[in-house]
Amino acid sequence: MKTTNALASTVSELSAHARKGSSSFPAKSGLVMLMGSALTLGCAGKSPAPTEPPPQAVAADQTELDITASGIKATLYLPHPTRGHYRALRFDGSGMVGRVVVNGHTFFGPWDAQVPGDANHDAGAIGTADEYGIDQPAGYAQAALGGSFVKIGVGRLTRTAPTPYRFSFNYPVVDAPAWKMQHGTGYVDFQQTLEPVDGWGYDYHKRVELLAGSKSSLPALLIHRTLMNIGQHTLETEQYTHNFVMIDDDLVDPRYALDMTFPITLKRPKDLNVYAEATGRRIQFLKPLPFKASAYADVANVPDAPAANHAVVTNSDSRASITISGDRAPVAIKMYATPRVICPEIFVPVRIEAGKTMSWTTRYEFSAPTK
Fold first, then answer.
1. How many helices (H) and strands (E) does the chain have?
2. Checking DSSP bridges between strand 72-77 and strand 320-326, what pairing results, if any?
3. Cα separation of 276 and 297, whole Å?
4. pLDDT on residue 90
5. Contact 324, 364 (CB under 8 A)
6. Are 280 and 264 in contact (CB under 8 A)?
7. Closest CA to 266 of 312, 348, 332
8. 30 in helix, strand or coil?
9. Radius of gyration of the chain, Cα coordinates, nearest whole angstrom
10. Distance between terminal CA atoms of the chain?
11. Residue 113: what pLDDT?
12. Collapsed DSSP state (helix, strand, coil) of residue 2
């Protein structure tokens, strides 16, 4: 049996509990293992492999962190209330991977030239930015005016109007719990706990880790999420990762294509705005997007199967690509593109009853020929 780390082992265990609907472990004690140090499992008659050094706490003033594995390096932008690269309220502040480097090729990068570097705007988000409830966060429908609702990965916000939720609006903050963070050479752990108020609360863990490539596998980045409902009301929303993808800093043009595992039918083909077309399983870009232009696709025929949670962005010029896949069946797949990035957005349903846990993982594989 090979050496495994504590989080990978725990995520597997919690995932099994979640799929069975089990809540046989205490609300928080079961999750604390996610932040534990490395664990070595040995086979009888064999010497155990060397253990990984214990995790280190992230410095209080740190806003970036590099992690590495053989053949792959990633730079993460860390949540920080006053100095973080992203301080708005749309996206989960943890686990934003701003850059990945494999064989001299780069993946991800700044996406919006209109508001570059504004930490209080959507433009401050980058790379693997997660969002919960782009249409309606948990508790928003139940909240009275002046009451609070839950934005997972952000905290507790105030409902200010009887109108539908607006994802780009910075609602007044009631409670933005601090993130606990620790890291090793090839991973970072994040934890945020929103204590229950009016029956709404959660304990949220995320690990971003790198896997070295081998003769049989590409170098990869994994995002493990484990969300426990520590309130009384059911947490019901959707999660997706915006995936601000650019490859080798090349702007979006006919070098780029997006492939899925099933024939694509779009709800509104005109939303591609002459910049791309959908044929078979591919969305092919036809021309560069001018400044401030965008293209959008809302896929109509998404299969209800984990195999549909799969998208590949390829740059034909550099012959590099990124494959994004997950272990949950999607409820929707959309694509957004600007002059700088292509964003495959795969939506996963989140429904967690009181005391229960849900775990799921997104995998990024990087194909990058040696320069």
1. 2, 23
2. unpaired
3. 10
4. 96
5. yes
6. yes
7. 332
8. helix
9. 20
10. 36
11. 57
12. coil
6, containing H or E segment:
helix 6-20
State the amino acid at position 335 in one-letter form: M
pLDDT at residue number 53:
85
* 346 contacts 330 by C-beta, under 8 angstroms: yes
CB 238 within 8 A of CB 331: yes
Q: How far is CA 197 from the centre of its chain?
A: 26
| DSSP-assigned letters across all residues of 74-125 | EEEEPP-TTT-S--SSSS-SS-EEEEEEETTEEE-----SSSTT-TTSGGG-
Q: Quick one: tokens of 261?
A: 């595992």
Q: Which residues contact 160 (CB under 8 A, 6 or more apart)?
A: 145, 146, 171, 172
pTM over 0.70: yes
| Token pair of 165 as six digits | 């939720």
Q: Flag residues of the chain having pLDDT under 70.
A: 1-50, 112-117
- Residue 45: is it exposed, middle or buried by C-beta count within 10 angstroms (0-12/13-18/19+)? exposed
The pLDDT of residue 109: 84
Cα–Cα distance, 67 to 183 (Å, whole number): 8
Length of the chain: 371
At 73 the pLDDT is: 98
pLDDT in tens, 178-209: 999 999 999 999 999 999 999 999 999 999 99
> What is the secondary structure of 164-226 as a DSSP string?
PP-TTS-PPEEE-PPPEEEEETTEEEEEEEEEEETTEEEEEEEEEEEE---SSS--EEEEEEE
- Find tokens 């964003």 and name the residue: 343
Q: Going by C-beta distance under 8 Å and a sequence separation of 6 or more, which residues neighbour residue 89?
A: 151, 154, 157, 170, 171, 173
Other beta carbons less than 10 A from residue 334's beta carbon:
20
Residue with tokens 């046989």: 24
Q: Among 241, 236, 247, 237, which residue's Cα sits nearest to residue 223?
A: 241
What is the Cα–Cα distance from 33 to 203, expressed in whole angstroms? 13
Q: What is the amino acid identity at position 333?
A: I
SS3 313: strand
Which letter, b or e, does each residue of 346-371 get, where b requires 16 or more Cβ atoms within 10 Å of its Cβ?
Answer: bbbebebebebbbbbbbbbbbbbeee
